Amino acid sequence: MKYIYIVLFVLLFTACSTQKLEPQEPLVLDENKSVNIKLVLPKKDTEIHDLKNIPQDVDYFLKNINSSILKYDVQEKYESSYFSVWNIDKPKEDVESAKWPFFLYKAEQSYGENLQPLKQEFFDNMLESANFGAYATVNLKAVTLRETNIRAFPTIRPLLLDPTLAGEGFPFDYMQNSTVHANKPLFISHYSKDMEWVYVLSSFASGWVKTSDIVILGDNDADIWQKAQQIQITKENVPIYTIDGRFLFKSRLGMMFALISQSDNAYTILTISSYKDSKPLFTESIISKDIASRGVISLNQNNLGEIVREVSKTNYGWGGMYEQRDCSSMLRDMFAPFGIWLPRNSYQQSKIGKVIAFNGMSDDDKIKLIKDKGIAFETLLYKKGHIVLYVGTYNDEVIVFHNTWGIKTKKDGVEGRVIIGKPIFSTLRLGKNQENYDEEAEILKNLKSMNILTQDAF
């Protein structure tokens, strides 16, 4: 058994999405004038055809799944990826790679929270604060204390592209690289000049987090933690407290904790909160077995239904903003309890497992190939900037599950959006019945590949 023996444990532990886009042409403004923005919102009476005519209940698409085929145990390999940043000596990326946001976003082509162009002074100050001369000098293990934003610059201020365009402005803050859940492993590269921020690597993203959101771990602490039996969270938004009743954080799919002991109905797990001088305070928490599993769960009909319902509780959140999810982070967290590790962004996710390219195929050929080779709930379909999960067919149409911001429209050459902003089941022609639908943006037309996660994945 991989229980942590609590006496030894206490002795040792008391001795822790982004999508890179081409900048838009600048909007020329008089600095004394405001930006004139026409918000593109759906009318209150706008009906989304697929939401009305495609079943939005996961059980409909699970009814033909054979659970005996879908058992998929990859605990050891999943844990290797999960804890990967605790098993390095220095960042794998070089300092120039870490500076990518400074090469991509430019003054007068980016906008701040007041919807005015950001000046060169902002970028100069951010580069100075980022302190890249100290890159890879700290090289310590750490852990998050709470749900934490990973930022492209060491700032909470947003960076927007042209806010007058549909699909830009709120909520698309390009400083929001990703989020990382509470009590997740991190690796520290270095601190900002003022020490308010720290540049970190997680297993799936890197960037700036608030120093107050992490604590540093010793090597022995991290080694014992990752060698313990792990508990996978399977329910969202359940408060987790210390054993004496102090609130820590809420549960999220994708969280994993070291097991200390268990009773008939509950697990006692290791949790970490803050102590003085960035020291970790190791505590015990008791959680119900209703919200967690000892190790990964089987990829079967019942479990898939439960997990899809859980991720469906969150809305669309660019880069994980407001503790919501975007298309790739939803899939990443959805597959975590099953022991299937996915990278953070859609392009990287499209390379996991057995990849089948759609090069040169007609739409009809793509549909035929998906129906012939795709495995429901195990196959991802990718187009640039978006990724979806194939779940089967309805009325002979391919159906996918995805978290989407909305449907692109175009009228007289001007782009618009019909906002959805949540996880849905839809066809690959989502929006085809909408007024002014932009056919060039159709999911099916732009599909690049499909990949079966459970075939040749590892």
TrEMBL record:
Residues 314-392 form the NlpC/P60 domain. Residues 6-135 form the NLPC/P60 N-terminal domain. Keywords: Hydrolase, Protease, Thiol protease. The keyword Protease applies. InterPro entries: NLP_P60_dom, NLPC/P60_N_dom, P60_peptidase_YkfC, Papain-like_cys_pep_sf, SH3b1_dom, SH3b2-type_SH3. The keyword Protease applies. Residues 158-210 form the SH3b1 domain. It comes from the Bacteria. GO terms for molecular function: cysteine-type peptidase activity. It holds the Pfam family SH3_6. Belongs to the peptidase C40 family. This is SH3 domain-containing protein.
